[in-house]
Amino acid sequence: MGAGVWAQPALRRARELTWARWLDREALLELLHAHQEELRSLAASHEDELRSLQAQLESHRQTLSQQDEQLRSSSEQIEHLKLVIEKLKRRMFGAKSDSTSALS
Length: 104
What we know:
Low-confidence stretches: none
Largest sheet: none
Shape: rod-shaped
């Protein structure tokens, strides 16, 4: 958020406080209650936003965990297939395929 979002209520409050000298006790209490309600509303909206962001973060963590598991599984499968290929090469071409694969 930019500074302007916070500056507007602050300027409004400053103007209201300037007028507070001429207001009676009841008017000051109403002003105070209005500001308290505004702060509660603002805090509630920030709490809602925080909960939403926490839920998004948890969702991203779960997705990342799943992708990590898939990557690990794929890597294990690749290593297994490399071993199968080497085994098949030895069956088809004998020991000389080992020396050929060492060159590559």
